[in-house]
Amino acid sequence: PDALPLKLTAQGFGQDGNWVGYALLVSNENTAYAIDEANCIINAYDATGNKVDLGSLSEKGRYLGVVFPGQPRAYTDRFKVEDGVTIDKIEISLNGGLPIAGDQPDPLKIDQVSFKTIYNQHRVIGVVSNSIDRAFDYITLAAVGYNEAGEIIGSGFNYMEYLPANGSVPFDASLVTSA
Question: In 3-state terms, what secondary structure has residue 59?
């Protein structure tokens, strides 16, 4: 059978001053295909419904990376708006995606996660583990902030330069939230 496209399952954002952190959750509902080369297009609007210029995020989008079979995946990023601009809503759409045959599960796992505020900055701290005999270079870690109602209120990310084969490494990521 043909591969299903990625499914957008949730989206949201938070704003702190001029910075807006957004998150999207996608899922790959295929059991025999990973999906690569998909991207997301982001559009943001102020309270009067005017579209805010986001440059390449609205035009070319953001590459999402490989999503393994059966895997949910979070993607986060941030953008800066001009002084006085308040984002009222964002719209995210998914485009493209190249199916890759195979049922390899995601070898990376996150655990020991905690939320901290350090010097007035929200941070997520945890450990990422690699379950296969292959090291990874330059991994993007995504953090999603939720409120008590389960709504996305912000996001953050960080980069990990190296994750050893069958190893674990601590991480931290800063969050931009509305809270």
Answer: helix
Q: What is the pLDDT of residues 4-32, one digit of tens each?
A: 999 999 999 999 999 999 999 999 999 88
pTM score, whole prediction: 0.77
* Alpha-carbon separation of residue 133 from 33, 42, 160 (angstroms): 22, 36, 18
Token look-up 């007035």 returns 120
Side chain identity at 36, as an amino acid letter?
A: D
Q: What is the pLDDT of residue 112?
A: 94
The answer for 84, left when phi > 0, alpha when psi is -120 to 50, beta otherwise, is left
Contacts of 113 (CB under 8 A, 6+ apart): 124, 125, 126
